[in-house]
């Protein structure tokens, strides 16, 4: 296999990495042991996983070395992969509770990946107080985005608990898009350009860009670097904190329907309510509303593969509004304005628009200037990753929960990413340990925020805390 050049988006995640901001993402799975499994089951599973060769892309790829590798980075196959390095087996100290698991995940996520090896690691963790075990999978964002990572992990699971022959995820053949990604993208772009012409694509992107920059605050559109500064935008340290929360999708959808909005509107509303409460307690709530960056996938589920394929929306969280109903309507209007704007562009135009939007941010991250700016591009990121809705099993072990563990940029001390699975939205809060040492409070407040919004709308329900 010849060396494979990184795309512009993939190169950004590689070059933006610093000693304080590592550009890897991860997934935390928690499993219940199969019925009748003994204490040796997890160890036997790890031993069985090690028998599978690491010969499938992207898990067998490492960064090419030599002259020009910094200017034009590329992937090349690694023929001598040490599986004992990439697959680890660990155990929690007594009592093996949520705190001990959170501490371990925070520490694992604070460590950089070795650029001399394929950029991924997997740690199987036992010793949890309830008899379950966990699996933490970490991979560099230059290799895979969140949607692809979620789908990759799901492929080694089965809806059939009696299926005991599922291979390790690194032994699965690449997703279909991996081999056809470039030809398909070129074909789509060529078809779009043939219909609309290059000038039309440029015109769509430029008009959308200017519309966003000129938008008045009451329109719901927010241009970059119009966000207020607060503790969420501190210079980050290399150490991370991680917290989780789980909310039932049915409850979220019921509230959304009652309020006349979408599920994504309610997700932003509970995040805004939790952040507002936390910053009020810290005496750090800005007078202007916080702004959230919201990744928008440019792929369908069938197209998920290697690399990155996302656009971006900037939405107001309405944190300056005390009334929950008014705050929700404010968020809903901002999200609708973003949908209207992005909906005016074809896929090639949307890609160009995203590059224009992100260029100053990318330059700031790669040069270190982002840490010095007084006005952040946005305050926090809220990313919703679609996951499997059916119950899945890992060689007979039931998957109980799946939490994303994301990355944070310099000047962006908090990332909130959620994944849907088995009727729940699983929120992962990844934060800078120094800037947000009590991120667990935000996770708790998120659960209470749903109850608050339900009460305000006249409905009732319970929160499932994680």
Automatic annotation (TrEMBL):
<dbReference type="GO" id="GO:0005886">
    <property type="term" value="C:plasma membrane"/>
</dbReference>
<dbReference type="InterPro" id="IPR009721">
    <property type="entry name" value="O-acyltransferase_WSD1_C"/>
</dbReference>
<comment type="similarity">
    <text>Belongs to the long-chain O-acyltransferase family.</text>
</comment>
<comment type="pathway">
    <text>Lipid metabolism.</text>
</comment>
<keyword id="KW-0444">Lipid biosynthesis</keyword>
<dbReference type="GO" id="GO:0019432">
    <property type="term" value="P:triglyceride biosynthetic process"/>
</dbReference>
<dbReference type="Pfam" id="PF06974">
    <property type="entry name" value="WS_DGAT_C"/>
</dbReference>
<keyword id="KW-1133">Transmembrane helix</keyword>
<dbReference type="GO" id="GO:0051701">
    <property type="term" value="P:biological process involved in interaction with host"/>
</dbReference>
<comment type="pathway">
    <text>Glycerolipid metabolism; triacylglycerol biosynthesis.</text>
</comment>
<keyword id="KW-0443">Lipid metabolism</keyword>
<keyword id="KW-0012">Acyltransferase</keyword>
<keyword id="KW-0808">Transferase</keyword>
<keyword id="KW-0472">Membrane</keyword>
<keyword id="KW-0319">Glycerol metabolism</keyword>
<dbReference type="GO" id="GO:0004144">
    <property type="term" value="F:diacylglycerol O-acyltransferase activity"/>
</dbReference>
<dbReference type="GO" id="GO:0006071">
    <property type="term" value="P:glycerol metabolic process"/>
</dbReference>
<dbReference type="Pfam" id="PF03007">
    <property type="entry name" value="WS_DGAT_cat"/>
</dbReference>
<dbReference type="InterPro" id="IPR004255">
    <property type="entry name" value="O-acyltransferase_WSD1_N"/>
</dbReference>
<feature type="transmembrane region" description="Helical">
    <location>
        <begin position="352"/>
        <end position="371"/>
    </location>
</feature>
<feature type="domain" description="O-acyltransferase WSD1-like N-terminal">
    <location>
        <begin position="6"/>
        <end position="267"/>
    </location>
</feature>
<dbReference type="InterPro" id="IPR023213">
    <property type="entry name" value="CAT-like_dom_sf"/>
</dbReference>
<dbReference type="InterPro" id="IPR045034">
    <property type="entry name" value="O-acyltransferase_WSD1-like"/>
</dbReference>
<dbReference type="GO" id="GO:0071731">
    <property type="term" value="P:response to nitric oxide"/>
</dbReference>
<protein>
    <recommendedName>
        <fullName>diacylglycerol O-acyltransferase</fullName>
        <ecNumber>2.3.1.20</ecNumber>
    </recommendedName>
</protein>
<feature type="domain" description="O-acyltransferase WSD1 C-terminal">
    <location>
        <begin position="307"/>
        <end position="453"/>
    </location>
</feature>
<dbReference type="GO" id="GO:0001666">
    <property type="term" value="P:response to hypoxia"/>
</dbReference>
<dbReference type="InterPro" id="IPR014292">
    <property type="entry name" value="Acyl_transf_WS/DGAT"/>
</dbReference>
<keyword id="KW-0812">Transmembrane</keyword>
């Amino acid at each position: 296999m010849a060396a494979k050049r990184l795309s512009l988006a993939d190169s950004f995640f590689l070059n933006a990495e610093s000693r304080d901001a590592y550009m890897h993402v991860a997934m935390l799975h928690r499993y219940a042991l199969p019925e009748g499994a003994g204490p040796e089951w997890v160890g036997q599973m790890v031993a069985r996983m090690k028998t599978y060769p690491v010969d499938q892309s992207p898990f067998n790829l490492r960064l090419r070395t030599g002259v020009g590798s910094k200017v034009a980075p590329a992937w090349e196959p690694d023929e001598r992969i040490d599986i004992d390095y990439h697959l680890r087996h660990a155990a929690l100290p007594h009592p093996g509770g949520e705190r001990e698991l959170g501490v371990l995940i925070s520490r694992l996520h604070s460590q950089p990946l070795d650029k001399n090896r394929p950029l991924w690691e997997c740690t199987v963790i036992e010793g949890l107080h309830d008899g379950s075990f966990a699996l933490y999978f970490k991979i560099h964002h230059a290799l895979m985005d969140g949607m692809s990572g979620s789908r990759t992990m799901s492929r080694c699971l089965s809806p059939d608990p009696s299926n005991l022959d599922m291979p390790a995820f690194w032994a699965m053949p690449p997703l279909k898009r991996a081999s056809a990604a470039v030809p398909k993208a070129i074909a789509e772009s060529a078809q779009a350009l043939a219909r609309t012409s290059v000038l039309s694509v440029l015109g769509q992107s430029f008009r959308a860009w200017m519309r966003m920059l000129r938008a008045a605050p009451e329109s719901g559109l927010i241009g970059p670097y119009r966000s207020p500064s607060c503790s969420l935008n501190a210079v980050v340290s290399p150490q991370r904190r991680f917290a989780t929360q789980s909310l039932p999708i049915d409850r979220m959808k019921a509230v959304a329907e009652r309020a006349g909005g979408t599920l994504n509107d309610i997700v932003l509303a509970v995040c805004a309510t939790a952040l507002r409460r936390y910053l009020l307690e810290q005496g750090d709530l800005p007078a202007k509303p916080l702004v959230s960056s919201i990744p928008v996938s440019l792929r369908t589920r069938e197209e998920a593969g290697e690399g990155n394929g996302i656009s971006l929306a900037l939405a107001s969280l309405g944190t300056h509004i005390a009334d929950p109903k008014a705050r929700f309507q404010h968020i809903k209007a901002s999200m609708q304005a973003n949908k209207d704007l992005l909906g005016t562009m074809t896929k090639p135009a949307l890609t160009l628009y995203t590059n224009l939007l992100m260029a100053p941010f990318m330059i700031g991250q790669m040069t270190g200037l982002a840490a010095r700016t007084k006005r952040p591009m946005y305050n926090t990121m809220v990313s919703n990753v679609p996951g499997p809705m059916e119950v899945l099993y890992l060689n007979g072990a039931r998957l109980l929960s799946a939490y994303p563990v994301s990355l944070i940029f310099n000047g962006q001390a908090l990332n909130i990413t959620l994944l849907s699975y088995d009727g729940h939205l699983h929120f992962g809060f990844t934060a800078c340990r120094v800037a947000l040492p009590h991120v667990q409070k935000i996770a708790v407040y998120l659960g209470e925020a749903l109850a608050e919004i339900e009460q305000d709308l006249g409905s009732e329900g319970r929160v499932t805390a994680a």
